[in-house]
Each structure stands twice: as C-alpha cells, then as structure tokens.
Design brief:
Oligomer: single chain
CATH architecture: 3-Layer(aba) Sandwich
Number of strands: 5
Structural class: alpha/beta
CATH class: Alpha Beta
CATH topology: Rossmann fold
Shape: globular
Number of helices: 9
Bound molecules: thymidine-5'-phosphate
Largest sheet: 5 strands, parallel
Strand order of the largest sheet: 2-3-1-4-5
Distance between the termini: 29 Å
Order of helices and strands: EHEHHEHHEHHEHH
Length: 223
C-alpha cells in the first residue's frame, strides 16, 4: 500500500522492559497535540477477539508449543489488521502499534527457532502485505530490560523465559534492522525524554516527506 491517501503505520518493537509502551503513549500525545488523528493499538490484542487471544498467550498456565503460540499470534494479527489497522489507515489516521510482524520474527524465528521463511509467509498472509512505514526498535541489554520488566510486577508466561532466549530475540531485532531501512534503532538506556525527542523528530521528518498524504483530511496542524 502506498503512503499517499492514507495514514501512517508506526510500530514499536523491543524486548520486555525496553520502554516501547511508554514511548508509544508519548508519541500519541505529541501527534494529537499536532492535531493528527491517532489510533493507539497493540499486539497481541487490539480487538475483542485479540484480547481473548492475548489472555491465552500471556496468562496461560499450561504449556503452549511454539507452533501453537505462532498460530495464535498470527490469528490475532490477521484479525487486527483487517478490523483495526487497515480501516484506520484508510480514514487517514496515524496508527501507532505496540509490536507487529517484527515481533514474530524476533521471538518465534530467533527466540523459538521456527523457520523464518515460513514465518515471513505467515506474516504476509496475516497482513495482506501491509508493512509499517517506520518502526522504532527500542534496544536495551537483556538484563536491564528484564530488571525493568520485573520491577513492574508479576511476570507473565513469556516474561519468564531465560535470558538466553531474550538474547536471541535481541539478535533477531538487529538482523531485521540490518535488512529493513524502515527500522530505526534507538538506545533504550537514554532518558524517556531523550528517546521521545528522537522518535518525534523521525516521525515529523516522515510526515513532512508525505505531508500531502495526511493534510487532505482538513486537519489544521499547529507548529
Ligand atoms: P507485550 O509484553 O509487548 O505486551 O507482548 C506480549 C508478549 O508477546 C511479549 O513477550 C512478546 C510476545 N510476542 C511474540 O512472541 N510474538 C509476536 O508476534 C507478538 C506480537 C508478541
């Protein structure tokens, strides 16, 4: 899908505790201040069905095989893309999504050692080929991320993985960033303010590049 005539899809990625959810909220607030219509969403979840899938994935006490887990993530995505993301983009809204296709490659291919080629195909099926316009990979050493995630409270099923699992996931994100110019690596150990400033600058650059695409909805941007 081309950029002209639709909103932007902006995704946030990183291991647990990387600060992506905080940064998504800050960017949403900043864009709303600039009078852009914003939809904040997340995977797994983001739809009533997706929230049920999320509960199964994140809070299940029983063992879930890597293959079953994969199907659940992909089902969630397919439903989310068709019911939330594409309709919002078509309404020229800015869609900010906490995790998307890169999470599946980082966690299921690198973390769980499932076939990347197969996962690329499944992501394509789930998204209908839709790709983010820009992705922020908030990078943090594994131990620092896990410390932060633990300090937030109870660990969920996926938070309980070993640090070697997260080291593989992080490697996966680096691999994706090397291959895709849309992925911006951000040093997640900086202050939340400094990270936000970098993210906002990149997004504003992208918006000015495609200014006409989103100005036709009558929005009156403030400086
Ligand atoms: P969250 O902590 O960002 O809410 O995400 C929930 C967990 O789901 C997190 O451990 C990452 C994992 N996940 C995958 O393993 N594959 C995926 O495709 C997605 C979207 C999330």
């Amino acid at each position: 899908m081309g950029l002209k005539g639709r909103g932007l899809l902006i995704t946030f990625e990183g291991i647990e505790g990387s600060g992506k959810t905080t940064q998504l909220k800050r960017l949403a607030a900043a864009l709303k201040k600039q009078r852009y219509p914003v939809v904040s969403t997340h995977e797994p979840g983001g739809t009533p069905l997706g929230e049920k899938i999320r509960t199964l994935l994140v809070h299940s006490k029983t063992k879930i095989s890597p293959e079953t887990e994969l199907f659940l993530f992909v089902s969630d995505r397919s439903n989310h893309v068709r019911n939330v993301i594409i309709p919002s983009l078509q309404k020229k809204q800015m869609v900010l999504c906490d995790r998307f296709t890169d999470s599946t490659i980082a966690y299921q291919a690198f973390g769980r050692s499932l076939s990347q080629k197969l996962l690329d195909g499944m992501n394509k099926l789930a998204t209908g080929g839709l790709k983010p316009d820009i992705t922020f990979f908030l990078d943090l050493p594994v131990q620092a991320g896990l410390r932060r995630a633990k300090s937030r409270g109870a660990l969920n099923r996926l938070d309980r993985e070993s640090s070697t699992f997260y080291a593989r996931v992080r490697k996966g994100y680096y691999f994706l960033a090397r291959k895709n110019s849309r992925i911006v690596i951000i040093d997640g150990s900086q202050s939340a303010e400094a990270i936000h400033a970098q993210i906002l600058q990149k997004v504003n650059m992208l918006l000015s590049k495609f200014g006409q695409a989103s100005s036709s909805n009558g929005r009156n941007r403030s400086k």
